[in-house]
Design a protein that fits this description.
The chain has a single domain, classed as Arc Repressor Mutant, subunit A. 52% of the residues lie in helices and 13% in strands. It contains four helices and two strands. It has helices at 3-13, 18-28, 36-48, 73-88; strands at 52-58, 66-71. It has a two-stranded antiparallel sheet with strand order 1-2. It is globular.
Length: 98
Amino acid sequence: MSLSLFILGTLAEQNNHPYQIKKYLLDVLPVGKLSEGKFYYNFESLQKKGYIKPVRTDKIENRPSKTTYAITAEGREHLEQSIYDSFRNHADVTDLYI
């Protein structure tokens, strides 16, 4: 499963901010150490493609801003198509297990 699909799938369930999604990913998948650069690069890439968009930025005193993201209609279409393609391109269903 790609990191971008995980992000889109998580945002399809509810709007969220990158840190919380990364925390969730590390809690549910044995991915080991996930670099900040790789993770945030995927967010930036998805935003540039128009698949996600920022919907709110919260500023808490003495802390960095927290931007909450939402999936767009194009992002939902891409997620759905990518899931279908994953099933179509794998002969062995165990390849799709997490």
